[in-house]
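Notes to self after the Tuesday call (sharing in case useful).
The group wants a holo model before anyone commits to mutagenesis around the pocket. I volunteered. Ligand is adenosine-5'-diphosphate. Logging inputs and output together so the record is complete.
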Amino acid sequence: MIVSKFGGTSVGTFEAMHHSASIVAENSDRSLVVISATSGTTNDLVSLEDPYLDSTSREAILLNIENRHLAIIDQCKEKEKPESSFRILLSHLRNHLELPGRDKKWKDTLYAFGELMSTRIFAGVLKEQGIDVEWLDARDVLKTDSTFGNAVPNVTLIKKYVEEKIDPEKRYLTQGFIGRDEFGNTTTLGRGGSDYSAALFAEAVNADLLEIWTDVAGVYSTDPRIVAEAQPISEITFDEAAELSVFGGKVLHPATLKPAIRGGVKVRVASSKQPELPGTLIVNTASKEPVVRAISLRKDQTLLTVKSLEMLHQHGFLAKLFGLLAEHKISVDLVTTSEVSVSLTLDTAHKASNKVELTEDILDELRTFCEVDVEKNLSLVALIGNKMDATSGISGTLFGLLENHNIRLVCHGASPNNVCFLVKEGTGEEIVKLIHRKFIE
Ligand code: ADP
Ligand code: ASP
Ligand code: MG
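Result:
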């Protein structure tokens, strides 16, 4: 059994849907298809949450959503069913916007409209190619906790509902990104979460293969939008691919590989526009394991430096610091320490995923026991590869190359699969190009 996930651009126009439907048609083992919202729609829905949005802007966004979907429906031979389902969802969306109390729960129900709309229309396009799929409401299976915006899936319950709702003899189409908590509320898995949904489904149905069909021909040596010379990688290990996605390789949602590893599911990333290209296979051991395989860039990072003379030869300071951050649900990425200071990075991107921000109140609490310095607008550059902790010369070459740049925090040695450092926001792309040229091209 194959679980096939198609991202926003792979279902963003009639032509894209048509290509993606042909891929589904080609192999009857593709029996669970997971899709995202049409490209741009989730962003539009996020814009609609603004309580200060005036009615002209609001109508313009709604019209944008309507036009994008009707343009696809208009090219379908049998429009009636997708059009009526779409119009019902659009009117539910309007009703939802009238509800008071725009909390995180309300926002997740808002975001879910994108995937509900795209799946209704894609079901019609699949039908035109002779594929009858059952339209599955992902929320009936993908059970999560109630952390709206970043919900945590309940793997045991997902398995239970998969067994109840999915007949292995049939083919299904469902939504990525969305789930439901135990109280019946719609939840979402965080931006880009459809990859994660597909992996959770793949684990639960014991799939042999998870396919991530996207707008590029696999996982590249770096984001091809930054470096035109970047090349797709034919084989990459789970460890490397996981690091790449965590450190900003948008091609996979950072949590995607966990369920795949647990379930022993192979993963392939490929282009829905050029399905004949080999794409990238993610495997346990790759035939080649170079020291530097890929480079990633993650923007919108914050560096928090705390200093306290109390730290000198004392115990308990780090526990106090991390205890306070944990209390406020602040997740820390990288850490370096000296005798009297600690620097740590916080990922402040993905606002729609409801990550907790470093507020003035939290900073004031920190100031009661240490000096605090916050630096924003930084980017994190990561080199991803193998045995990086045990290979000599990497840092020398790397930092020699970057001698004209001001490097903030550096992390090397904690993982065999990465070396990473912070730089000023505006210089990240240039640095990625330099490193790519030196280590990969
Ligand atoms: P989808 O809508 O299919 O989920 P995304 O836009 O989320 O697609 O992810 C695909 C994009 O990820 C590519 O267009 C590319 O710009 C970006 N990207 C970032 N890093 C990489 C990488 N290392 N390899 C491939 N794509 C990458
Ligand atoms: N539609 C959602 C988003 O834009 C989920 C996804 O595309 O994976 O974030
Ligand atoms: Mg994506």
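Two things stood out.
The chain is about 35% helix and 20% strand.
Residues 7, 192, 195 surround magnesium ion (ligand 3) (CB under 6 Å).
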